[in-house]
Design a protein that fits this description.
The complex is a heterodimer of chains A (131) and B (348). Chain A has 131 residues and is mainly β. Chain A has helices at 3-8, 10-15; strands at 17-21, 27-28, 43-47, 51-60, 73-79, 85-90, 103-112, 121-128. In chain B, the strands form 3 sheets. Chain B has a 9-stranded mixed sheet with strand order 5-4-6-7-1-8-13-12-11, sandwiched between helices. Chain B has a 3-stranded mixed sheet with strand order 3-2-14. In chain B, strands 9-10 form a two-stranded antiparallel sheet. Classes of the chains: A mainly beta (131), B alpha/beta (348). At the A-B interface, helix 2 and strand 7 of A face helix 3 and helix 4 of B.
């Protein structure tokens, strides 16, 4: 990922910043300029919760080359209490024990390292809630 | 009153046992376990580094501090495993917790003392009025060369402390530092693994420095070991802190809450700071805690903390260190550990 893109997406990737339409209340992650439900252009910044529930998942066994060291790994969609859904990697888990409906916590992790010389990119991954 | 207004730790969930490492190198596991007083150590996964550990620890500290991150005036990360050779860890941590752009950031290095260095500077900035709050972090994903004695102990973890003047959990009543040029452990530029001077790391380095710091702070504070409820020493293994504690006249009861190396390993810059978090977790208002770090090269920072009433409401606002240390553990074999720690050379 090019450094400028990493930098541009930091509010969402690092701090889970989303936006709520001030007219209809629809939440967008990442934020948008115009609400696709009501067309309104004013939004309030919010931070997504740190926890959600696993809606669905799949196990990747043949990954893209930059993730080959991590295979097999799970990718899932979690649903937050505010209804928003997010896709991400599930880590620190036993793949055989993952269950739909399981509580998940978001943790800040490395996403890509770009070999040994590129800029490191960070974001949140899902970890089964255990405390 | 200047001190800690929020604290938090982070420890990776994976562990490797001494037996598993010894098996690969044909070493005698019982001898290592007895010699180091250590049975296992934490292992970071490839997506965990000093920055991610620092962010998690800082978020736990914020949960206990109950402050707006925007009020943090400085973020200092002490580590000897900063992910970049050139680019700060502190800015990523500051960005992730939301205290940019009105803050000062710096990365500290001083072998295993980098975390307490950040705490020392943070306390000074708050005391002088330069900053309302300072976030000071000690964390590492330390490396030990394959087959070296260090490989049995080099572990990963971080602790974060928010220093401030209002709603303090533990007041810092005294500090003292003891520094000399003692080359017991080092890593030259472009080298992957550190080197150490074997037995020279003991008496002339660790023990002389920690004892010097203890003598200095006890004199400065006008206190004796009996005046403290708890003491935390740097813990490169399980044995050194117990031995130096006994030399100084501390009891096992005073040492044990912050003595994590037997199950955690040596988290380098995180070692005595994580020990302080686990001690705060079980302390009572009025308790007095002595913390003495140690960094090769060499130096020790010593702090006297006095726990306040606020510990009662703050300690369970975030996960306790004992939970991170003892629960949800996954043991890995040496092959997995070697892959996670980038010890296997692959074709480019």
């Amino acid at each position: 990922m090019f450094p400028s893109r990493i930098w541009r997406e930091m509010p969402q990737r690092y701090r889970l910043e989303a936006s709520t339409c001030k007219k209809c209340g629809k939440i967008f992650y990442p934020p948008r300029l115009i609400c696709d439900k009501c067309g309104y252009r004013k939004f309030e910044k919010i931070n997504l919760p740190e926890e959600g529930k696993l809606k669905t998942f799949t196990v990747i066994r043949t990954p893209a080359s930059q993730f080959s060291d991590e295979a097999p790994y799970a990718i899932g969609i979690i649903r937050f209490s505010n209804g928003l859904q997010m896709m991400g990697q599930i880590v620190d888990c036993d793949l055989e024990k993952l269950k739909i409906g399981q509580a998940m916590r978001l943790e800040f992790r490395r996403v890509q390292t770009h070999d040994t010389h590129g800029v490191l990119s960070y974001a949140h991954k899902f970890v089964p809630k255990w405390y | 009153m200047v001190g800690i207004v929020g604290y938090g730790a982070q420890i990776p969930r994976h562990r490797i046992k001494v037996e598993e490492i010894a098996k690969v190198w044909g070493a005698d596991a019982p001898s290592y376990k007895k010699g180091l007083m250590l049975s296992e150590k934490s292992v970071p996964t490839p997506d965990v580094d000093t920055i991610t550990l620092s962010v998690a620890a800082a978020r736990n500290a914020l949960k206990r501090a109950l402050i707006n991150p925007k009020d943090i005036g400085a973020v200092y990360v002490g580590s000897e495993s900063h992910p970049y050779a050139v680019k700060p860890s502190g800015t990523t941590v500051a960005e992730a917790i939301g205290c940019v752009p009105d803050c000062h950031c710096a990365d500290f290095e001083f072998a295993c003392k980098a975390g307490s260095e950040a705490m020392f500077v943070g306390l000074g900035l708050v005391k002088s009025g330069f900053c309302k709050y300072v976030l000071a972090i000690g964390g590492d994903t330390s490396q030990g060369a394959p087959g070296d004695a260090l490989e049995y102990s080099a572990a990963a973890g971080a602790a974060a402390f928010i220093m401030g003047k209002k709603d303090v959990i533990a007041e810092c009543t005294h500090t003292y530092s003891f520094m000399t040029d003692t080359p017991d452990f080092w890593r030259r530029e472009h080298e992957f693994y550190p080197q150490h001077a074997g037995r020279f790391t003991g008496e002339p380095a660790y023990f002389r420095t920690v004892k010097g710091a203890a003598a200095g702070i006890l004199k400065k504070a006008g206190m004796t070991p009996k005046d403290f409820d708890y003491v935390i020493f740097h813990q490169p293994n399980g044995k050194f802190p117990q031995r130096v504690g006994k030399m100084l006249g501390f009891t096992k009861k005073q040492i044990e809450p912050g003595w994590l190396a037997p199950r955690l390993g040596n988290t380098y810059s995180g070692a005595s700071p994580i020990g302080l978090t686990s001690t705060l977790d079980i302390s009572k208002p009025g308790d007095k805690i002595l913390m003495i770090s140690y960094g090769s090269g060499a130096g020790s920072d010593a702090f006297v903390w006095k726990v306040t009433d606020r510990i009662k409401e703050a300690r369970d606002l975030a996960v306790r260190t004992s939970t991170l240390l003892d629960k949800n553990i996954t043991y890995v074999d040496y092959g997995t550990y070697a892959k996670y720690r980038h010890k296997i050379l692959k074709n480019k």
